[in-house]
């Protein structure tokens, strides 16, 4: 590079630095003006922060990554709910079976207090509509 080219570059650099300085002054003046307008409108830094936060949250919610994550978590929640429901139903059934066995004995035969769950003989009882029927009667026959 010649001395003349170097001098041209120094001159251009000086002009660019002056433009940068001028632009910084203009920017500072515009920021001051914007601050004054915000003050007149009653916008505080906290209000502005809230607005920026709300806008940022809206941007996140509209992003594809957020939508995909939301869908995945929704499906996972539905599957978890179904699993707990199935588990609850199974527990309820098991408790019902235990209650049934307590009153009806292991073989499904009526268990009378103080009687073994397997009776030595089966007695037919009156029909279930009979008002005088024994609550421990069994009307099915096992063959």
Give a written overview of the molecule.
It holds the Pfam family TPD52. Belongs to the TPD52 family. InterPro entries: TPD52. Residues 6-40 form a coiled coil. With 143 residues, this protein is mostly helical. Among the domains are: 1-43; 49-90. The chain has three helices and no strands. The model is unreliable at 139-143 (pLDDT under 50).
Chain-wise SSE layout:
Blueprint: H1 3-41, H2 45-61, H3 64-104
Keywords: Coiled coil
Coiled coil: 6-40
Protein name: Tumor protein D52-like 2
Separation of termini?
A: 115 Å
Order of helices and strands: HHH
Total strands: the figure is 0
Main sheet characteristics: none
General shape? elongated
- Radius of gyration from CA coordinates: 43 Å
Oligomer: single chain
Instruction: Determine the strand fraction and express it as a percent band.
Output: under 5%
Spans of at least 5 consecutive residues whose pLDDT stays below 50 are 139-143
Task: Classify the helix fraction into a percent range.
Answer: 55-70%
Number of helices: 3
Q: What structural category arises from helix and sheet content?
A: mainly alpha
Mean pLDDT: 78
């Amino acid at each position: 590079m010649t001395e003349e080219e170097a001098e041209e570059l120094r001159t251009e650099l000086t002009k660019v630095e002056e433009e940068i300085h001028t632009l910084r002054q203009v920017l500072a003046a515009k920021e001051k003006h914007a601050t004054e307008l915000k003050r007149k409108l009653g916008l505080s830094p906290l209000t502005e922060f809230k607005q920026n936060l709300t806008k940022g949250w809206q941007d996140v919610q509209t992003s594809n990554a957020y939508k995909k994550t939301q869908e995945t978590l929704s499906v996972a929640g539905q599957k978890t709910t179904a699993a707990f429901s199935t588990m609850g139903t199974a527990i309820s059934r098991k408790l019902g079976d235990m209650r049934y066995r307590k009153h009806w004995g292991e073989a499904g035969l009526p268990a009378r207090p103080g009687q073994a769950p397997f009776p030595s003989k089966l007695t037919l009882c009156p029909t279930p509509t009979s008002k005088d029927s024994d609550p421990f009667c069994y009307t099915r026959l096992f063959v």
